[in-house]
Every structure is written in C-alpha cells, then in structure tokens.
From TrEMBL:
Domain annotation MrpA C-terminal/MbhD: ranges: 613-677
Entry annotated with the keyword Transmembrane helix: yes
Annotated InterPro entries: CPA3_Na-H_Antiporter_A, MnhB, MrpA_C/MbhD, MrpA_C/MbhE, ND/Mrp_TM, Nuo/plastoQ_OxRdtase_6_NuoJ
Domain Na+/H+ antiporter MnhB subunit-related protein: 810-933
Bilayer disposition of the protein: Multi-pass membrane protein
Subcellular location: Cell membrane; Membrane
Protein name in the entry: Na+/H+ antiporter subunit A
Residues passing through the membrane, by range: 74-94, 106-124, 130-151, 163-182, 210-232, 244-266, 272-292, 299-317, 323-348, 369-391, 411-433, 454-475, 501-524, 571-592, 604-625, 632-649, 655-673, 693-713, 749-768, 809-831, 837-857, 878-902, 914-936
C-alpha cells in the first residue's frame, strides 16, 4: 500500500512533464499506474476471517498521527473503484482533451487528477483516523482545483469555492469528532475503536454520541446529503472527466465509505438513524424529483447522483449484514453506470457542443454505438434486468423488506426507496429520450447535424464500464463471496443471510420492481399529470444556493460589524489596547498569584553594560527624532546591539543571524521610506504624547518585572543545558540552534517559512497591480551592445540604463568584485551551518544581501542580471524542498522532519556525512532568497519604475567622473 502511494505520488510529479511533452496522449501512460495498482489489490484480496493486511510508518507519534494502513474487504472494494475507474478516466482524458486551447492547463490538471487518485486511495486504506482526515481534507483541496479548471469562468470559481467551503466545514466538524472518539477509546485506529465499541456498547457515552454525530456531519457533507446537497450539482462546472470520477466513483463515495466503516459500532444510536436513515431517504426522493426538472444532461445525472447517494447512505448505514451487502452491491453498480453516463455526456458535449436536451434530436440515429452504451448504463441505473443495477435494487428491496430495524422504520424506508426508485426510472428515461430521442423531428437538430466523429479511444472507457454492468449482472452469484466478506466479518450472522443472484424467483421485491418500472414510465411521459406538476411546482428541495449566499452574506456582515466594534482604524488605539493588556494581565497574575523571592543580583561585564546603555540611548533617541531615515538607523543600533550581546554570551549563530536580519531590515525600511516624506508629522496633543510615554515606560517596567519573576520561579535545571548533547544525538549536528530549526522544531520552521512565502506574495500583490509573476526586468541584447560601445566603462550590465547622476562607479566596482565572494560565503554558511554558525537561513540572508548590493549599484535591471529567475518559482521550489525533506526521512524509516545521517567516503573529500535535514535547510535557503528577490522586485524595481518619469529604453553614456553621488 505504501508502494502504491509512492508510485502514485511519483506519477503526480511526472504528470506535468509527460503531458506537457506528449500532450493528451500521455494520459494513456499515466493510466498504467492505477491499473497496475488495481492488479495488486486484486492479487492480495482480503479473505474473510483472516487478519487484514497492515503496513505502518511513523509520522508524528506524539500526536498519534502515523501512516497506519489496513486493507480490509471494504477498503479493497473502494480501492477497486478508486483505481479501476481512475484508470478508465485517464484513458478517457486522452480522447477528451483534444482542443488546442486546453493544452496550457492540461499538465497541471493531469497532476491534480493523479494526485486525487493517490489521496483517495490513502483515504480508503487508512486505519489511523487522523491520517484519514489528512487524506480527507486533501480530497477537498484537490476537488477545489479540479472543479475550478475553467478558472476564467465565474461559474467555475463559484462552484469550486462552494464545494471547498461546504466539505471543509464538514471536515472540521469531523475532526472534532475524531479527537473525541480517539481520546475516549484510547486509540486513533479505526480497527481498535470499532472493536472496543462493538465489544462494550455501554462504553458509548454522551461524548461519544456527540463525536459520532460530528463525524456524520463530515460524511454527509462530503456525500452531498441534504442539507449539504447543493454543492454537487454546482460542481458540474468541472470538466466531464472530473465529474465522471470525483462525483460518481470517488470523492462522493468517501462519506458512504466512512458510514459503512462505522456502522457496525454505532448504527444502533438514535442520532445515527435520524441523520443517516432520515436524511438519506429524504435526499433520495427530493433529488430524484429535482432531476426530472433539468434540461442539462449533466445536471440530470448530478441530481440523480445525489438521489442515489441518499439510497446508499440508508443501505450501508442500516446496521445489518444483509443491508450492508445490498449497499455494497449498489455502491459498485452506481460507480459503473454513473461513470459511464457522465463520460457519455462528455462525448455528446464534446462532439455537438451542447448538453441541452432541447437542442438534441435524433442523436441516436447518428451514433448508435454511443446510444447502446448509454442505454445499458441507464438501464442499470433504473434497475432493469439483467443489468448489475437490477441485482443491487432487488437486494435493497429484499433486505429492507425483512429488516430487523425498529418499527416503523422498515416500511417507511421501503416506501421511500420505492418512490425514489420510480423517480430514478423516470429520470433515466428522460436522460435517454433527451439525449438520443427523435422528439418528433424528421431531421437532426443543428447541433447533431454538425457534430464531429467520435474516436474509438474516446468511446472505449464508457463502453468498457457499460459492458461490465451487464457482465456483473449476469455473474452476480460469483460476486457474492467478494462483496459479502465485509458484511460477514463486521456484523453478527443473520438467521437468513441474503445472497446475490440475478434471479430469486417470483417474489414480492420482483413485484415491487415491476410497479417501480411501470410508475417510472408513467412519470416520465411528457404529457402526464406529473409532467405538468413538474413544470408548475416550485423546486421541492428549496433554493439551497440562495441559502448558501445568504449564509455567506450574513457571515460577512457579522464579521464587518465585529471589526467595526473592535477595530476603529486607529493605530495608536490598537497598539495602546495591546500594550495596556500586556501591562495589566501580568500585573494581576503577579498581584494575586504565588511569587518566589526575586534574585536581584546582576552579573554583567562592562562591555555588556556599555552596550546596554548604548541601546537604551538609541531607543530614547528614536522616540525624539522626526526624520524617518534617521529614526530607522537609530533603531538599527538596538538590533545590532542585541547581536553583540548574543556574541558576548556565546551564541555566535544567533549573533550572525541577528546582524544579517538587521541589515536586511534596514534595506527594506530604506526602500519603503524613500517614497515617503523625509520628516514625520507631529501627531496628537501634548497630553496624548505624555500618555504614550507613560504607557511605554509601564510596558518596559512590566517586561523587566516579568523577567525577574520568571527567573526567580525556576526550580529545575534549564532544559537548554542538555540541548547541545541531544542536538548531536538526534540531529547529528554541533550547531544547536540550526538543529533546533531543522530537526527538533522543524514543524514550527515549516510553518514559519510558509508564512514567509505568504508574506512575500502579499507584498508583491500589493505593489504589482496586474501580473505578480515573472522575473525581474533584464537588459536587452540591443541595450547591452549599445552600452558596450558607449564611451567609459560599464561594470554592471544594469547600470547601463541608469541615469549617470544616480550611478557610483566605486559602488559598481565594489559590487562586481564582492558579489562572487559574498555568494561563496553564503554557500559556505549553508553547508557549514549544521556544525558551525550559519545554516540555510543565514546563508539565504547572505545571498539576499548580495542581491541588495547588486541592486543598489546597478538599479532595477541589475536584479534580473544577477538572478534571472521568477521569485515565485524560487519560493515554491523552496517550500517543495522542505516538504521533500519530510518524505525522505519517512522513507528512511524515521519520523517526519527528523534527521537521518548517511556516512560514506569520497575521493579527495575523504569521509563525508550527509544529514537529511540538509534538504529541509535547502528549502529554507531558497525561500529566504526568493523573499529577498520578491521584495527587491516589488519595493525596489517596481517602485523605481512607477517613480520614474519615463522608462529608459536605451543606455546612457557614462561620463567621466560622473559616477559618484
């Protein structure tokens, strides 16, 4: 299972490359990966009564979040759907994406689709509830990306956002429920939680019931059950392969899978029955009725899918062996016929340019093979013998008829299923008639008449699944032992266990099926009373989209009012509130809490005292100065002083980093302040300034008091005393600070560099009005040639386009000579940082300062000459490398983001030790470099361009002696 996840992950990484190189044909090669995985699942199929196949990999043991995988009978069935239909969909993509206009987005789409297969497979084989939740949320994110494929369309953006918000909201509720169950039962493994709940039903407390309800909220939101049904029809804005896979065979089945997994332990709860059975049967009826009102073929199938999901929820959530068998039969049948029908709609849309049944007539006369494929799938959906859907429908009616659920649930649910099945028969007929019917016309409509031919490859996928619907129906007896494994293991044995078969004789379910078919035919008639009722009556599901919009508007209004009441837009007021809180809360704690006797002895060297006095003087001077630049420089003294103190007390790595950060901060301040007036205005009255001064003194005094109290409260030996030993033992490095960053608290560092990336993106987005991406501007070849021919000497290519009055020949020569040396030092810091002062952060800052030097000497064009890369790509590559460092440690059998050392001998170099944390540190290095590059592009080059009266397109000659400012 781990190998499958790894292979699918590598296929995800390779997909953009191969699709970008070979186009849509590359989908055929990508399909081989899930197909091979499907073969493996079939060869190791779990056997009822035997222990399930398990694999485990430590991830975050402290949080009980490990990659515990377990292939059960239920997981194997879901894996067949995820991998098998996934492979078919990839083959279908090779015929679907033939339009040249779609090739630009196709590589990314391919990666997202294969990634979805990977996370969906991980979801159905995860035994760890927290790991399953991670996969669960990844399906929501990838669904958002796939549904929003046509991002230029407002409908696609709205549908993607809607699906993400609804499913993520349910996922958050589910996470709380998972934590409740995990803490109550002392385990986060599904297998152990379910076993303990089944063995001791009395252990199910109120808290457990609440947890189960929260998990069910996540399940019904993912499976589009009322009241969360509305996102799925909206998601039909996605390309048809996405609908055929996510919304027929994969994503929407995740909630069904979760309910089926938990049903043996919790199906007897009243809250469970209300949510699963009540909302399930309601969804089946209302969505089936809504499907009869649609004219878009895809929306007919979408509401039909919602209806079928309601039925599946009832069957797998009934809590009985026979109902579960019927549910699994319908689950697999639905995946086959619904994926087929979605692909058929995609072919129709692709060849005719429309999905509107009012614009389609006599398509069946022109495309007989396509009509036969659609007829087989629709017949299976309607439950017509001998299709597989008929076997599932018969099993559902028979098992519900003899269910042992409390009265009157069986008769109510059976009645609801009959009504919903009749509606299913009706919209199946409507679909076939709307897509392929003649509709009383003597000639095809324009869309049909002008349609282009269908390639065999395009038709192969739906034809294969349609044939499987027929074969599975005929061979349903042989499938019984495959599908009954999980119900037999999960539930107590039934007195009369049900077995799948195409023919059970003349029974009451067969009579009900006959009535369902007859009723469906009547309802589907265009001139029947039901048709007039459909046209006249309002939508019985209500307008959920309006409710969704009203909810979002309400949230916006509420947040706006809260912001208005708490954030007045006054920076002094906001800062004053924060600082006043900083003073009062510690004061109350110290006043009413226990206090240790403070130790007021001070042991400090004369150098430390001198630096401290200088820092205090600089801070006071900064308050009095009005010149902005002078203020920044004086504030910088406090930063550099802090670095000196670090060095005095034996923290060279901290001192180095402090110096580099302070220098870069000064540069950023200068870049911003040059666009502001030199003098800051005097604001506030004299009493206001006095109040601010008193508040500042109070904050400083409170920080001092808290520091003294904290020092006095220490009774144990500082943990820092053991850090150097532990850093080398677990992180294989002598630089304790660097090991802390890339190993001991690597998760924190990963979050911080993610914030850095977001900050860089935000700054650039505020400055760049149109397009935020791209590298810094470069000197054109013509301009460079002209500069070479100009009199004088040009040390930097970018300076050729600068005004001579703003050039400094000394600075250009210094930059030209110092830049390589600084970059070498930067690389040294990076490689040496694990055992000496430095590291990825310090190395990245050093490289950033080298870029700053080039910018100051050569202007905005020199940034592109120094590093002709897109800052966004540098940032993204850095974050990717940091994530890869996590995967490498996992592959080595260590916890995520921990260090693994490899020692070997190389010629010339001798003994070499490489730590996997180096990959993570490389990501930090690139993110810092990308951040500096982005800041120079936005606050430097971009503001230079907007501030210049006209962009210079030709180099200016360098005049003798005109270089210095």
């Amino acid at each position: 299972m781990l190998i499958i996840l790894i292979c699918l992950s590598f296929a995800t990484l390779a997909a953009p490359v191969v699709v970008g190189r070979f186009g849509a044909r590359a989908f055929l090669g990508l399909a081989a990966v899930p197909a091979a995985a499907l073969v493996w699942v079939i060869t190791v199929w779990p056997v009822a009564g035997e222990p399930a196949r398990t694999e485990s990999l430590q991830w975050v043991p402290a949080l009980h979040m490990n990659l515990d995988l377990r292939l059960t009978e239920l997981g194997a069935i879901m894996s067949v759907l995820v991998l098998g239909i996934g492979a078919v969909i990839l083959v279908y993509c090779a015929g679907y994406f033939t339009d040249v206009s779609s090739t630009r987005k196709l590589p990314t789409f391919a990666a997202e689709l294969v990634a979805f297969m990977a996370v969906m497979f991980g979801l159905v084989v995860s035994d760890n509830m927290l790991a399953m939740y991670v996969f669960w949320e990844l399906t929501s994110v990838l669904s958002f990306l796939l549904v929003g494929y046509y991002a230029e369309r407002a409908t696609s953006r709205r549908a993607a956002t809607q699906a993400l918000l609804v499913t993520t909201l349910g996922g958050l509720a589910m996470l709380v429920g998972i934590v409740e169950l995990g803490e109550h039962y002392g385990s986060y493994l599904f297998s152990e939680v379910i076993a303990r709940a089944v063995a001791d039903p009395s252990s199910i407390s109120i808290g457990v019931e609440v947890g189960v309800v929260l998990i069910l909220i996540g399940a019904i939101s993912k499976s589009a059950i009322v009241p969360f049904h509305f996102w799925l029809p909206g998601a039909m804005a996605a390309p048809t392969p996405v609908s055929g896979y996510l919304h027929a065979a994969a994503m929407v089945k995740a909630g069904i899978y979760l309910v089926a997994l938990l049903a043996p332990a919790f199906a007897h709860l009243n809250a469970w029955r209300v949510i699963v059975l009540g909302l399930g049967i309601l969804t089946m009826i209302l969505a089936g009725w809504r499907a009869l009102r649609e004219f878009d073929l895809k929306l007919i199938l979408a509401f039909g899918t919602v209806s079928q999901l309601g039925m599946l929820m009832v069957l797998v959530g009934g809590g009985e062996r026979n109902l579960m068998l019927a549910g699994l039969t319908m689950l697999t049948a639905h995946a086959l016929f619904k994926a087929t029908l979605f692909m058929v709609v995609g072919i129709i849309d692709h060849t005719t340019g429309t999905r509107d049944i009012r614009r389609l007539a006599r398509l069946g006369d022109r495309q007989k093979v396509l009509a036969v494929v659609a007829a087989l799938a629709a017949a299976s959906m309607a439950g017509i013998p001998p299709l597989y859907g008929f076997v599932g429908k018969e099993a559902a009616l028979e098992t519900m008829l003899h269910s042992s659920l409390p009265e009157p649930l069986p008769i109510v649910l059976l009645t609801g299923m009959c009504v919903g099945s009749a509606l299913t028969m009706a919209y199946s007929i409507r679909f076939l008639w709307g897509a392929f019917g003649r509709k009383g016309q003597s000639a095809p409509t324009r869309a049909v008449a002008e349609m282009h031919s269908i390639s065999p490859l395009f038709l192969a996928g739906p034809a294969l699944l349609a044939v499987l619907s027929l074969v599975d129906g005929l061979a349903s007896g042989q499938l019984d032992h495959v599908l009954s494994g999980y119900p037999d293991d999960a539930f107590p044995p039934e007195s009369e266990p049900y077995h799948l078969a195409l023919w059970h004789g003349f029974t009451l379910p067969l009579l009900l099926t006959t009535l369902i078919i007859a009723t469906g035919i009547v309802v589907a008639q265009p001139h029947s009373p039901f048709a007039r009722l459909r046209r006249r009556n309002s939508v019985l599901l209500g307008n959920a989209d309006r409710l969704y919009d009203a909810t979002l508007r309400g949230a916006d209004v509420l947040s706006l009012r809260m912001t208005q009441s708490t954030q007045r837009g006054s920076l002094p007021l906001t800062q004053g509130t924060i600082l006043l809180t900083l003073v009062l809360l510690p004061l109350l704690v110290l006043a009413f809490g226990t206090r240790a006797r403070p130790d007021l002895r001070v042991e400090a060297s004369p150098l430390f005292l001198s630096i401290s006095v200088l820092m205090c003087a600089a801070a006071l001077t900064a308050v009095l100065l009005r010149n902005r630049l002078a203020t920044v420089l004086v504030v910088g003294v406090t930063g550099y002083g802090t670095g000196v103190i670090f060095a005095i007390y034996g923290a060279p790595d901290l001192a180095l980093t402090q110096f580099l950060v302070e220098t870069l901060t000064l540069v950023v301040f200068v870049l911003v302040l040059r666009k502001l007036p030199a003098e800051a205005p005097i604001t506030g009255s004299r009493p206001s300034r006095v109040a601010r001064a008193l508040l500042g003194i109070a904050v400083a005094a409170m920080v001092l008091v808290v520091a003294v109290a904290t020092r006095a409260a220490r009774v144990a030996a500082p943990v820092a005393d053991r850090l150097p030993e532990q850093a080398y033992r677990f992180g294989y490095g002598h630089n304790t600070v660097n090991v802390i960053l890339v190993d001991i608290r690597a998760w924190d560092t990963f979050g911080e560099i993610s914030v850095l990336l977001v900050a860089a993106t935000g700054v650039a987005s505020l400055v760049f009005r149109n397009r935020r991406f791209g590298s810094a501007p470069r000197v054109s070849a013509e301009a460079a040639a002209a500069a070479a021919a100009a009199p004088g000497t040009t040390w930097l290519r970018g300076s050729a386009l600068r005004d001579p009055r703003h050039r400094s020949l000394v600075l250009e020569i210094t930059s030209r000579m110092a830049f390589p040396t600084i970059m070498v030092v930067s690389v040294y810091f990076f490689f040496a940082g694990h055992n000496a002062p430095g590291g990825g952060f310090a190395g990245g800052l050093t490289a950033g300062l080298a870029l700053v030097l080039r910018y100051l000497a050569g202007g905005r064009y020199e940034i592109g000459e120094a590093l002709p890369l897109d800052a966004g790509r540098v940032l993204g590559t850095g974050l990717l490398l940091a994530a890869v460092g996590t995967i490498v440690s996992l592959l080595a059998g260590a916890p995520a983001m921990s260090s693994v050392a490899y020692e070997f001998t190389l010629p010339v170099f001798g003994d070499v030790k490489v730590v996997t944390a180096l990959i993570f540190d490389a990501g930090v290095y690139l993110i810092v470099v990308g951040l500096v590059l982005d800041v120079l592009r936005s606050l430097g080059a971009r503001l230079d361009l907007e501030g210049s009266p006209a962009d210079m397109t030709s180099p200016l000659p360098v005049q003798s002696g005109g270089g210095a400012r």
